[in-house]
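Newbie here. two chains, one complex. Structure please?
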Amino acid sequence: MRRRVILVTAMLISACGAGETTGIAISDARLGEPTGPNAALYLTVTTDAADRLLGASTDAAASVELHETTSNDDGTVSMQPAAGFDVAPDEPLVLEPGGKHAMLIDADRLARGDSVEVVLVFESAGEVSVTADVVDPQDVLGAERSTMSPELSERGR
Amino acid sequence: MRFRGPRFMVAVVSCWALAACSGGGMAASDLQGVPVEDPTPKPEFTLTDTEGRPYDFAEETRGQLTLLYFGYTHCPDICPVHLAQIAETFDQIPEVASATEMVFVTVDPERDTPQVLREFLDNFDSRFVGLTGTPAELESAQEAVGVTPAFKEGEGDDYTVQHAGQVFAWAADGLLYAEYPFGTRQQTWVNDLALLAEIEPAAR
């Protein structure tokens, strides 16, 4: 009974487009400024219930694909398309450089300082909207990415 | 005046001591990149630059701090990060930038025409050198450097390329001192390029 109430509430709220009440929370969404035809989106997903990221879409690119970069023993790196990425309450999904990421194919010529609306599609939670900041590619590395964050956000403006 | 003597001598001796250490004896232990145990000479290969001219790597970079990276312009994940970090380091220490040759070799000659390559590199720093060649030339260049040659993965226009992930750094003496795998921090680049730039060219 209780579960049904929660479910209905979640459905109602998600119908209103409020992503944060689906139990999914997105943080640190950032997109490296495109330097070629493609651009990589990085973010962290936390959730109240096990779910799976199935894909994404945005008006700022022809399409979005989930990819995973892996480092191999011989020093090479390779990038493979992925069908989806799991996320669980005790296991946040981290999209980060050199690992899992969402790739914007034929991205618009976005510049640092811009922001991009992206719709993430989850197996259970459905669509969750997120705004990603476009940043200098040197600044995508995540938590310890820089000791000079305040001024970095000022660069290129 | 008399009192200046001893202190002056100490200063002079310190300078000598430092100078004695600066040729080849650079504090390699202070490098934060992945050190190369046995510094090896620069590889020999000739490719074509973005102006269509032949570029003899060992000859063109002789006597300069030299960085080399194999990548491709459709790569959105790791290639731009390496290049942006090096460009940022060039901005932070311009005197090092002017004494450094940054060479980017495409591993995707099919899509990376000289013009595409030039536009891509200009996003970072217009001083970066872009090289391409025939698949056979590119493969032998990678073998000369000692990396696993890159290869295509996937079909159609959307293919990706598996390629060496590290940047190589030779000092002006022509020796390879360190490698920089993906994930290298900005501070490491600033620290290491400043140190490597202190190494003098070898006497010819």
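Moderator note: Confidence is low (pLDDT under 50) at residues 1-24 of chain B. Strands of chain B lie at 34-35, 46-49, 54-56, 65-71, 100-106, 129-132, 151-153, 160-164, 167-170, 176-180. Thread marked as resolved.
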